[in-house]
Amino acid sequence: MAHMMILLILGWLLFVAVHLLIAVRAGREKIENRWGRWGLRAFVATGALIGLAMMVQGYAAAPFYPGWMPLAWGRELSAVLMPVASVLLVAAYLPSNIKRLTAHPMLWAVVLWAGSHLLVRGDWASMVLFGGLGLYALVAMGLAWIRGVRRRTGPQPVWADGVAVAGGLVLYAGLLIAHPVLFGVAVFQ
């Protein structure tokens, strides 16, 4: 079963390597010049999906090695963080004023998702999966800052914010319902 931890780590490394390769302008341009824009997208999507599949399979079968005691109030804080993460994830794909608060709503969603899961899980596989993806999201934001990516300054219609919030809350509700089926763990017991 320890080999599943290796699969989890290798999946994380593949996922991060693909994303960091395109985060560096020279790597991105090299792939895009060779395979075109759609080739670049296919490269990233394929690498990310394979990495995610390896992480999911590795995490699901990894043995439980305790690392720390989850916080007693971790579930409550997670219940506050996850709706915010869901709204940020939806806002990443919509024109809204949320992008005036941060240039990286999806990456902040990953950080909040990872942090909220680490609050309630105290094992090493969780540290690799959630901690690794949360750390990657922070590094990706730093690299984007270096490349000059900044938050938007122009106002968007208020209804767009409502759509992002409503969509995020619907996503959160769907994840709450599907969590036991998809991941074998009921969020609220």
Summarize the entry for a quick read.
This protein is an all-alpha fold. The chain has helices at 2-23, 25-61, 74-91, 98-101, 105-120, 124-147, 158-183. It has two domains: 1-63; 64-189, no CATH class.
Number of strands: 0
**Biggest β-sheet description:** none
Average pLDDT confidence is 89
Low-pLDDT segments: none
Count of discrete domains: 2
The Rg value, from CA coordinates, equals: 18 Å
Q: What percent of the residues sit in helical stretches (DSSP H or I)?
A: over 70%
What percentage of amino acids are in beta strands? under 5%
SSE series: HHHHHHH
Terminal CA distance: 28 Å
> Number of DSSP helices?
7
Sheet/helix structural class? mainly alpha
Shape: globular
